[in-house]
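Dear colleague,

As promised, here are the two records you asked about, laid out in our usual form so they can be pasted straight into your sheet.

NAME FIELD: protein one
SEQUENCE, THEN STRUCTURE:
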Amino acid sequence: MQIPQQVAYIIDKLNTRGFEAYAVGGCVRDTLLGREPGDWDITTSAKPEQVKALFRRTVDTGIQHGTVTVLIDRTGYEVTTYRIDGIYEDGRHPRQVEFTSDLLEDLRRRDFTINAMAYSHDKGIVDAFDGMGDLKRKVIRCVGNPMERFSEDALRILRAIRFSAQLDFSIEKETWEAIGQIAPNIAKVSRERIQVELTKLLLSDHPERMMDVFETGISRYIFGESYQLLRGKPDVPENISRLLKEAALSERRNLQEAAKLPGKKYIRWAAFLSRAGADGAVRILKDLKLDNETIRRVKTLVSWAGRELPEEEAFVRRGMSQMEPEVWDGVLALNGYSPAIREMTRRIRERGDCLDLKHLAVSGQDLIAAGVTPGKEMGEILGRLLEHVLERPEDNRKEVLLGLGKPDVPVEFRNSIPSAAVRVQEDLNCRQKLEQ
C-alpha cells in the first residue's frame, strides 16, 4: 500500500521509540479500493502523553478518548491509542475508554469489517475480521454481533446505508435485519449528524439507496411527522401494501435518475424532496438543521419541480430573474429542460440581458432626478421597468426607460408598459384553454 510521506513518518517515529503504530480504518479501506482517502488516521500502542512527547506540534482533539492530532505541514493527522470502549449509556458515546496494548482489541470495537483493518509497511495489512474478503464480495457487515454494534452507537445504522451508497455495496443479511430491529435508536442521534449522513448518501453515485432508509423502517424516526409527505397516502385501503411497494419502486427509479444531476447538495435534496412540496421541504430541512442558504435554494427548486416552460426567451428570462444563476442551472437539470431552453439561457448570459434591478439601466436616483417622488410609486415604477426589459431586453437603455418612467407620462400609459409577468400568465391561460 502507498501511504503519504507524513503518515509514514509518524508511524516510523513511533516504531523507533518502541511503540506499535498503523494507518487504520477508512483510509486503509479506500486505498485498497483505489479511492482517494479523505483523511488518514493512525492507531498506536503509545499513550496520548507519549505521543505528545514525540512530536513538536500536537492538539488535544479528543484526549479523553486517546486521540491527539499531530500537525505536519499544516495538516492534522489523528493519532489514537489502542482502546477498549466502555458502556455506551447514551447510544452514541462510551462512558469511558480503557487503553490497551492489543491492536486486535482496538479493531474489535469498530463498526464494519471493511473499516477494521490496519496497515504499516513493516507488518503489512492486519485483517482479523475478513474486511478484505468483504471488500471483494462488496458487502457491508458489522464486526461481531450487529445488534451490539448498533446498540453501542445508533449512528452506525445510517453509516451502513451511506457506505452501501458510496461504495455500491450490499448490506449483509444479518446486518440488514439488525437495522430494522434497532431502528428506534436512531432517535438518539443528533439531527445534525443524521443530516450529514443523509447528505453524503444523496451526493453519492447511488442516491436511490435513500429508499433503504424507508425500507428498513428508520425513516419514521428520522422524518417524524413529515414522513407521510415523502411516502404519500394510498387512496385505496385494501391495496396499501401493493401501492406502497409501487411507490417505493417509482421513487427508487426517480432517485436513480438523480445520480445524473450535478453533485450539489441543494440539487440532490430538491430531487429527493420534490414530492413534499416547497413548504414541506423547508420544514424537513429545518428539522434536520441544514444551513439557510441550502434551504432557500431547495425551496426554489422544489417550487419549480415539474413546471413546464415555453421555449421563448421572455419566459426563460423571467425564470432566470427569480433566482441565482447556479440555482437556475439546477432547475434546468432537475426538470430536464430542452436543449433549446439551455441554448436560450446561454445566449441570455452571453448578451448580458438585464435580469434584476441591479442591472437595470436606471436607478432610483435617476428617477428622482427625473421628478419621481421617492416611495411606493418609485418602487412600482422600477418593478414595471424591470418587467419591461425582461420582455424587451433591447430597451434596457437609460433614455428609453426614463421616457417610460418619468412622472409627466400619463398614468394610463405607464400602466400599459408591457409586463412579462402578466404576459406569461395570459399565455399560459391561453395554452391551457387550447389543450382543453
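NAME FIELD: protein two
SEQUENCE, THEN STRUCTURE:
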Amino acid sequence: MTERLYELIEQLFRKQSLTVEEYEYLIENRCAEAAKLLKKKAVMLRESIYGREVFIRGLIEISNICKNDCFYCGIRKSNSLCERYRLTPSQIIECVDEGYYLGFRTFVMQGGEDAYFSDDILCDIITEIKSKYPDCAVTLSLGERSSASYQRMYDAGADRYLLRHETAEQSHYQKLHPETMSYTERMNCLSNLKSIGYQVGCGFMVGSPFQTAASLAMDLKFIESFRPDMCGIGPFIPHKNTPFKYHAAGTLELTCYLLSVIRIIYPPILLPSTTALSTISPAGRERGIQAGANVIMPNLSPQLVRKQYELYDNKAYTSEESAQCLNELKHKMRLIGYEIVSKRGDIKKSEDKRNLPQRKEF
C-alpha cells in the first residue's frame, strides 16, 4: 500500500470526507492491504453503533411489470421473453403474515413501475399492514413517483423508501437509460422523499457498463453529501435479454471494498449485503457483512414467482435467500460471529459516538 493511499484512508476515517479526486485515487489504487485496513475500520464503526446485530428485511417482489426500459434490467419493458406477473393485494398481505410469523419486522415491497399499483391500492395495503402489525416498518421500492404520491404513502404509514440513484454522474446515467428517463428527475425524487420525512435509501451497481473510477468517486461523494439512511450496492450482473448481455459482471472484491468505504463515510448507515453478492459468490453474503454491511433481505415472495423477478441472470432466490430458510441463514451468520435479530432495525443516528460534522443536504 502506498503512503498516499494509507494517508487517504486515515483522513477518511478522521473526517468522513474526501474530495472526488481523492475517492478516485482510493478506488484506482486499491490493494489487498488497503481493503483489509478499510474493512477493519468499517467493522469497528459499525459495531460501535449496532454491535454484531444483523437486521433482516422481508422482501416481497410485488410485480415484474415495468413501464421503463432501463438497458441493464431483465424486467425492462422491451424484454418480450419475460414472463410477467403481478401479486394481488391479498397475496401481498399473505406474504406479510407469513413473514411476521417467521420473525420479520420490516417488509420491503419492491417492483417495477407498474401502473396498476395506484396510490389508492398501495395506501390500502400499507394501512392494512400497519394496522395488523404496528410494530413493523414498511419499506417501498417502487421507482419514480410524484411528490404527492410519496406523501400519500407516507401518510398511510410507509416508513422507508429505497430508490437507487444508479450513478451520480449524469452522462453515465444517460448511457444506462433510455431518453425518456431523466437523471434530474431521479435526483429530485430522492430529494422529495427526504423532505417528506422518509428514511431514504439510494444505491448503485458496481461494475456497470461505462462505469469508471471517476464515476464511482462521484457516487461516494453523493453519499457523503446526501447522507442516506440506507445504501444498496451490489455487483452489476448482466441479463441475457438486455443490450448489456455481454458485459462483464462486477466483482465481489470491489463491491466489498466500497461497502467498507461507505460505512466509514457515514457510520450509522444501514447497508445491505445484497442478493447480487450471493449470486456471484457462494460466500458473497458473508463477505459483505464482514466488510461492514448489517442488513440482509431474504425473499418472502410466493415461490412460484421468485424466478420471474429476474433483474439479472441466475439470481439467487432459494436456500438462504429464501425467508423460509431463516434458521439456516442465522446459523451461517453465527459462524462468522454475527446475530440476526427480529427488530425493525431503524438507523441509529443519535448513537453515532463520533459526532459527525453536519454537511449540506442534497
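A couple of things worth noting about protein two: Confidence is low (pLDDT under 50) at residues 351-362. Residues 230 and 335 are 26 Å apart (CA to CA).

Best,
R.
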